[in-house]
Structures are given as C-alpha cells and as structure tokens.
Amino acid sequence: MIDISVVIPAYNEAESLPELCAWIQRVMQENHFSYEIIIIDDGSTDNTWQVIQQIALQEPFLQAISFNRNYGKSAALHTGFQQAQGKVVITMDADLQDDPEEIPELYRLITQEGYDLVSGWKQKRQDPLSKTIPTKLYNAVTRWFSGIPLHDFNCGLKAYKLQVVKSIEVYGEMHRYIPVIAKAAGFKKIGEKKVKHHPRKYGHTKFGIERFLHGFLDLLSITFVTKFRKRPMHFFGGWGVLFFSIGFVIACYLIADKIISIYQRVPYRNVTEQPLFYLALVAMIVGVQLFTAGFIGEMIITNSSKTQEYVIRERITYSAKK
What's 204's domain CATH number? Predict the structure, then answer.
C-alpha cells in the first residue's frame, strides 16, 4: 500500500495545476513518501484537462478523471475517494492557497497520533472581510449544531485514514460537513491543525456569498440525515404520535365536558361549535400524516440503495501511461 493519496478537485484551474503538482512532487520526494495524485476535473470550461494531460507526461504517479459537466466539489471528492489507495488521504484545493508543505505533519497526525480525520485551520486567512466574517459565523453555528470543536469546517486541506473515505458518502454540497458525516459514521477522533493559507495567485474564487445560505440549509439537512436517515420513523413517527395525542386529548376533553354539562343540566355548546375542536382535529390529522410519512420512509430505506453516478468524459490511469 502506498503512503499518501492526494485528491484535488479542480474547476478552471489550468494556470495553478502545474505549479501545484510540482510542489507536491517535491514535498513527497523530500520526505520519501510513496504517493499518488488524483485530480478530478469537475467539468472545466478552460483548458484544464489539456494541462492535466501534459502534467501526466511528467508525473508518473498521477491519475485523473474528467467529468462531462460541472457536478460540484462534493461529486469530485466522492469520486476521488473511490479511486484513492493510500493509507492516508489528503485533500486540497487546486488554487495554490493550500500549502503542500503541511502534508508531512498531517500524515504524522494520522499515522502516529491515531486521528481518524485532521482538518486544517486557516487561522490567518488571505481573504477579504466579506468572506472571512460570514465564514466565522458559519463555523460557529456548525460547531454548535455538530458538537465538533473545529474552527474551519470548510478548509479544503484535510487528512483522512483510508477507512474513513471508503466508509462515508459525500453528495450534494455536503463536502463542507465531511467531519460531521465522519463522526456520524463512528470516526470520532477528529483533530485540527493550523495551516498556512496563501493568497490566490491565479484566477478568481468559484464561490459566491450564496454559499453561506446554502451551507446553513445543508447543515440542517445533514443534521437530520445523520440522525434519522436509517430510522425516519423515530422522527416522523415520534412527532406524529405527539400531535395525534394532543388532538385526541383535547377532543376527549370537549366531549367529556359536554356530557358532564348535559348530566348536570347546565347550558353547553356543541363540540363542533368550539374553535378548540378544529385545532384538535387539525392536530390529529397532522399526527396521522407524520406517522404515515415515517412509515413510508421506513419502507423506502428498506427497499432502496443510494448510489452516486457521474458521467466521466475521459480518464488517465497508471496503466494508460505504461
């Protein structure tokens, strides 16, 4: 087994990739690591794939996959994880803002300190305030929701045991929450390392301010999925029983009140004339619907399997270069 797999998602990064790969190669050779570099071209519209093909002529340990269109960073990471063979898997962005010099220490933390996952912390970010301030808020909310004490969940520079990346599923835009997904899968020894963050040298960022709204919605989604994905009845059924019980108790109270009033021969209102009856009726209907949703969810989980498939346009492998 090789020591390290470096997984690099790339979208329109033709200018930075040659320099990044040369830098990674130098670090690996200086530290005598056996390694592979896996580049996932996420449907780039520039000449990124042509540049990768040129790099492959000089880098014997490079393999690459080109998507037919842009699927997003999660899809690229998921595909890269499927291909990885190193006992430690390092992910980094292709824009040269992550520093390959951090790789030896990340490798040590996984292999010697026993961490399942180590996330980079860009303590001194080389980004404008319009990006750093929302990021701090986003990380604070994620820490509170997940209970994982990381300062920078979205840092592209991370290290994993191979077993971690083979055991988790990254889809949609859930790459921001890989530590949360890993924890839910039972990999609870999650560490953090302060890492260097360089200014962007080429091109421009691919992410806009909308990613923070999407990120919060994804956080709610992943929190629900990690807790109730395999047991939807526990969530929907629980709330369903609660709502139905509240409605049923209120309805029984109204009916009992009418019966007592008739028995005592005092004035009374018909049950259907009281607004509280309709609230009780709505609660019971909602309760039945929620319980039914949980039951259907259980049936879907039992009878279906989720797979991620992406259209691959071209591929570079070791055997193709021999």
Answer: 3.90.550.10
pLDDT of 32-44, one tens digit each? 999 999 999 999 9
Q: Could you tell me the two tokens for 128?
A: 């404008």
Query: Where does a domain end: 174, 203, 229?
Result: 229
Q: In the numeric block, which tokens belong to residue 101?
A: 């010099």
pLDDT tens digits along 237-295: 888 889 999 999 999 999 998 888 888 888 888 888 888 889 999 999 998 998 888 77
Domain count, the chain: 2
- The rounded distance, in Å, linking the Cα atoms of 266 and 273 is 17
Task: Please report whether residue 256 resides in a domain.
Answer: yes
Do 117 and 238 sit in the same domain of this protein?
no
Q: Is 237 exposed, middle or buried (0-12, 13-18, 19+ CB in 10 A)?
A: buried
Taking only the tens place, the pLDDT of each residue in 196-250 is 888 777 766 655 555 555 666 666 666 666 666 666 777 788 888 899 999 999 9
pTM of the entire structure? 0.73
Sequential DSSP letters for 75-93:
HHHHHHHHH--SSEEEE--
> What is the distance between the alpha carbons of residues 59 and 56, in angstroms, rounded to a whole number?
5
* Dihedral sign of CA atoms 269, 273, 276, 282 in order: positive
Contact between 290 and 44 (Cβ < 8 Å): no
Q: Which letter does DSSP use for residue 227 in this model?
A: H
